[in-house]
Amino acid sequence: MTAHRSWFVIARREFLERVRTKWFVIATLLGPVLMLGLILVPALLARTGGDKNRIALVDRSAPEDQALKIADKLQAVFTSNGWTVTRVPPATTDAELLAEVANENVNSFLVVPVDPLGKGQFVYRGDNASSQGVLLALLGSLTNVIVHERGTKVGLTTEQVDNLNRPPQIDIKLTTGQAEGSSGGAAFVVGYAVMIILYLAIMMYGVNVMRSVVEEKTSRVVELMVAAAKPRDLMAGKILGVGAVGLLQLTVWLGMAVVTLTYRDQLLGIFGVSAKGAVLPALALSQISVVLLYFVLGYFFYSALFAAIGAMVSSDQEAQQAQTPVTMLLMIPISCVTLVANNPRGLTSQIMTTIPFSSSTLMPMRFLLGGATWLQVLVSVLVLIASVAVVVALAAKIYRVGILMYGKRPSLRELLRWLRY
């Protein structure tokens, strides 16, 4: 095996060994299925009526307020929301109402206070109090009814009350001043999803490289491979082969994401569901290119570290312990995602998307949110490329010595000696 061809042969072996497995096919096809599920499941659930609520309504208001029939009006509004309302006598105690919830006869109960139009406090208890949909519907219903009754009490007409109670119309779009803009929430969803996919892909395939090295080392297969190729070529071939598998899988996933976002309405129409809520922005070719570029560079950066760890240890247990520092480097960007999302053009975002250990996952999200210019992307890419070159060179030195070392893990002093070797 010639020196200039050995890395290619190893890369091809690593690639074919993985893509021919049934698990690779399953995982590759599972991604598009999950993407379809992300748009179909919420739409199908919304068609079933969303949050249902069986609510017990207790009217303990004073006689003069009962004449306004506030409880009746609340019941009408709740019913229009699709809730099932049961009227309960005012003398019913809280303990009895809680027992109804405990026995699952109702989901919740609402107590109308003695002074509902004044300082009286409405009481809501239920097993769905954590549902944002239920709470927003409850607050909106109470506000509409009480505001109308207060306005009528002070002599306002229904039209005047409606004008006072009408919320302002706000058109909110995400833009950096260069385009029409898009829904901020929808753009965040796409950017966050891309960031998570990159994190999982880099982690999964980086760890895959480490485990492959450990497996070959513990089985002594690597001793035969070293006789046919240089350690540097072994590491390069392994990283390139496994990386090609990840790039293929990620390309399939992103391609399916483009199709799903572009033809969202048509796909939902097949199932007889109409699209509701903010429309997710489609991914442009330039955005897909940036995502794939950062995956490749981020993968090389972290897989070289994982390969070095695999060469340092002699078992899977040691590898799991030794990989913790590298895993923590990947976890730091996850904890900083809100910092980038809240201010994509801020100083913190610029720093986090330039530092090599976090730029591979955070810069694509920042770019999708419109917070990074092409110049900033170029600077980030150049820094990441330089970092990859340094990390790969150092990892190759560790790999060259450690691949044939068995026994305990090397100390920090021994690692420094390997780097100088």
The main sheet comes to:
4 strands, mixed
Please tally the helical runs, counting DSSP H or I stretches of 4 or more residues: 19
Compute the number of structural domains: 2
Distance between the termini: 26 Å
What is the beta-strand fraction? Answer: under 5%
Shape: elongated
The radius of gyration is 30 Å
Helix content: 55-70%
Question: Overview of this structure, please?
Answer:
The chain is built from 19 helices and four strands. The two termini are 26 Å apart. The radius of gyration is 30 Å and the shape is elongated. The protein has two domains: 3-44 and 182-420, no CATH class; 51-162, 3-Layer(aba) Sandwich (Rossmann fold), CATH 3.40.50. Helix 12 (285-312) packs parallel to helix 18 (374-402). Strands 2-1-3-4 form a four-stranded mixed β-sheet, sandwiched between helices. The chain has 421 residues and is mainly alpha-helical.
List the topology elements.
Blueprint: H1 3-19, H2 22-47, E1 54-59, H3 63-66, H4 70-80, E2 84-88, H5 94-102, E3 108-112, E4 123-126, H6 132-153, H7 158-165, H8 184-218, H9 221-228, H10 231-262, H11 264-270, H12 285-312, H13 316-322, H14 324-335, H15 337-342, H16 347-352, H17 356-368, H18 374-402, H19 412-420
Parallel strand pairs: 1-2, 1-3
Antiparallel strand pairs: 3-4
Helix pairs in contact: 1-10, 2-10, 4-6, 6-7, 8-10, 8-12, 8-17, 10-12, 12-17, 12-18, 14-17, 17-18, 18-19
